[in-house]
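#lab-general

N.A. 3:47 PM
ok so I finally got the sequence cleaned up, no stray characters, all 159 residues accounted for. can someone with queue access submit it? mine expired

B.Y. 3:52 PM
send it over

N.A. 3:53 PM
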Amino acid sequence: MNKEEELIRKKSPVNIKNKKAAFDYFFIERYTAGIVLTGTEIKSIRQGKASLVDTFCYINNGEIWVKGMSISPYFYGSYNNHDSKRDRKLLLTKREIAKLQSATKQTGYTIVPLLVFIDQHGRAKMDIALCKGKKDFDKRQTLKEKEDRREMERAIKHY
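B.Y. 4:20 PM
back already:
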């Protein structure tokens, strides 16, 4: 990810993160994918009413889908409202999908959504990553590193 893409994500009015992903997985490769949404879904995302808790991606018939993503029904949606937990199609190139499909056939690898944001053109995008699951001792090491960083920051602030 280059600096320009990172700046777009920081400037985005919406940043819905999957906070547990970094704790549970090692990120191998990252991709940015478009999301196929209905009218009321994009309005709910723009209000920040979405969640990536317990989500994962799977590949079916050469298409990549996200399962378990929750987008709250739009308040003013009336009968046009969407189903909050439906599977949503992601937009990637055929080459990227083929690469992900071959990688996920290996044991221990999966595709996990990391972030939902709005790009500069007003479209909803999702950062996904090819991940390898962490073992328990890896998770303890991650917690220790996080705690050490926090202590170092406190020490710097006191001086």
